[in-house]
Amino acid sequence: MTLADLLVEFAGTGEIGPLHCGMPLAEAEKLLGPGRPHPAIRLKGPDIDGYPYAWGSLDLSVTRRHVSGIGLRLWPGSTVELPPLIRPGAGPCSATVLREDLIAALDAAGCRHEINSALTFGRQWSLLTQPADACAVFSLPGRDNDVPHRDRFYLDVLHVRTA
What we know:
Order of helices and strands: HHEHEEEEEHEEEE
Strand content: 25-35%
Oligomer: single chain
């Protein structure tokens, strides 16, 4: 599965493979192996809510020891590293995804989307997908991003959250 395929599937369903919001963290860790907890979790203990566990570029936010959010973090100009469960047999790949390319892939898959005006301002642009209500956030590259087009928007994160 390509990164583009994974992004479109996630944007359309709100799920990545067997991972979904509402599942117990213990079940996710059984599938993925132990995650790297956010420093706040290490400091305050596993019962603190709202902080993510990470597996490379994959984040799972946790509330009451259940997955309350799933996010894919990209750093344009670098590589994405995902657990084998997410992309079996695939190694790291480019994290450089242009806004126009993701929109074209969503359109080709029939995944509806609209501008997310709450997160579109200045050097940032966002969209929401339906029916999954996934949020994609794009930005113009910073000076540390090694990208070919300095004046175009690149995907930074695609995430879903429970209410």
